[in-house]
Every structure is written in structure tokens, then in C-alpha cells.
Amino acid sequence: MTAPPAAPPRERAYRTWLWALPPVVLLGCAFLYPLALVVRQSFQPDSGGTSLKPYADVFASTAFREALWTTVWLALAATACCLVLGFFLSLVIAFVPFPGARAVARFVDVFLSFPSFLITLALLFLYGTAGIANGLWTGATGAGAGPFQFLTTPWGVLLAEVTYFTPFVMRPLLAAFSQLDTAQLEVAASLGARPARIVRRVVLPEAFPALTAGGGLVLVLCLNEFGIVLFTGAKGVTTLPTLVYSKAILESDYPGACVVAVVNVLVSVGLYGLYRMVSRRAGA
């Protein structure tokens, strides 16, 4: 039997474009078109016409500059903490034998399905003003208020983000560790290498791509996190997503909200692009 003749290059290109058309149309309708509407609204002040006045008003406000700085430093700090904590916990689960290690690894998968506000509520039950920790303290000392009042500060938001996003770093790390050849660890240990050197010279290079992938995901998610900041009740902590909410819902300033949304998108894409560039140069 002879093979059927191959289709001409022009026909193959036509079929490729035909198969690519539905997802491109879906992407345009679900994402690109709404994004274009947001960008267009950001150039249309309430007074009418098209101008840069909404951008000038937003950039001149102190609330926007503080929200921008808070968003960036919270995202970077949470990403760094998640990378360190996630790497350490993944090492323990993957290489330190203890009963229930497999169950803990599966719990990480389940944890990823939890909504962010659920983790924040759990922290509020533990460390909130009327939480368990403050209740035990006041019951033991008779004081009027407990010492745990940090959840309504930036440090409380940081704790909640690290608690929620650390499994997003652990999942790719555990997958990478499961494929690591344990013979390399045994050879390094037989040659007299200490555990810290084995981790630095053998484990870390193998896990670096997974570590950068998890870190990039956490960075983008932290830049756009809304529920954690809202449910902690941190009134002095305003990020770009919460500023979009306040301008659109509370102030009815839709052009200003669209300006902040556009800046949030640009900051997210810019920081993520910088993260990818650094990770590629580092060999990830």
C-alpha cells in the first residue's frame, strides 16, 4: 500500500489557521475585548471626550503611589518567603522519612483547591482580635485585650499570603524531587559530603526550574490578590486590586478604576517578564 500524498504547504497552512481560529476568537471575546474596553475607558473622563486627565489625576494621588508600593513589596516579600519555606518543606517531605509523608504530599494537592479567603478566615479564628490565641491569653492573664493584633497590619497580610501560596511552590518542587535519582545523593553522601552541600550542589540545581516556575506563579498571583487583603480587614493596607474596587464601587470613579487596572496589568506583566529574564540568565 502506498501512503496518501501529502497536502500542499498552502493547504496545510490553511488547515492550521482553521484549527487555530476558534481558540483565538474565544481568547479575543473572553479577554482581549474586555481589556480593550478597560483601556479605552481609562482615556475617557467623566466630563467627556478623550484625554490623559484620568491618568494625570490618578498618578498625582498619594493613595495610588502608596498602593503601588504596597502591592510590589508585598508580592516580592511573599514570593521570597514562599520560595524559602516551600523549598524547605518540600525537602522534608521528599527526603526525610517520617510516617504520613505521602498523606502530607497529597494534602498539598488538596490545599491548592482552597479559596484564599478560607485560609484568611482560619487565621482570623486563630490570631484575630476575638480569636483563639487572644482568648487564651486574656483567659490566663485577665487582660482586656490579647497581644496578637498583627493581622490588620501589612505583616498579617504577608503571613496570610505566605500561608496560602507556599503550596503553589511545593507542588512543582515535589514533582521534581520525585524524579530525582537518589543514587546521586547516595554517591555524594558516600564521598563525605554534608547534607547542606548535597542540597546546594545536587538537589538545588535539579529543582531550580521547578523553583522558578513556582516562584513566577506566586509572584503573579500575589500581585493580583484581592480576597486576602479584603478579609484580613487591614484598613491601612491598600493594594492596586483593592484600589480598583474602592474607586469603582465606593467612589464611582470608573475612569480612575480603569487607569489603576491598566497599571496593575502592566506591573504584573513587567515584573513577571523581569522574573523570567532573570531565571533564564540563571540557567532555569
Any idea how many domains?
A: 1
- End-to-end separation in angstroms reads 47 Å
Could you estimate the helical fraction of the residues in percent? over 70%
Structural class: mainly alpha
CATH class annotation: Mainly Alpha
CATH superfamily: MetI-like
The general outline is flat
Query: What's the CATH topology name?
Result: MetI-like fold
Unreliably modeled segments: none
Number of strand segments: 0
What about the largest sheet? none
Q: Compute the number of helices.
A: 12
Overall mean pLDDT stands at 82
> Strand percentage, roughly?
under 5%
Radius of gyration: 25 Å
> Can you write the helix and strand succession as a string?
HHHHHHHHHHHH
Report the CATH architecture.
Orthogonal Bundle
Model description:
- The chain is mainly alpha-helical.
- It has one domain (53-281): MetI-like (MetI-like fold, Orthogonal Bundle).
- The chain is built from twelve helices and no strands.
- Helix 4 crosses helix 7.
- The longest helix is centred in the first third of the chain and has 34 residues, at 9-42.
- It is flat and about 75 Å long.
- The two termini are 47 Å apart.
- The model has no long low-confidence stretch (mean pLDDT 82).
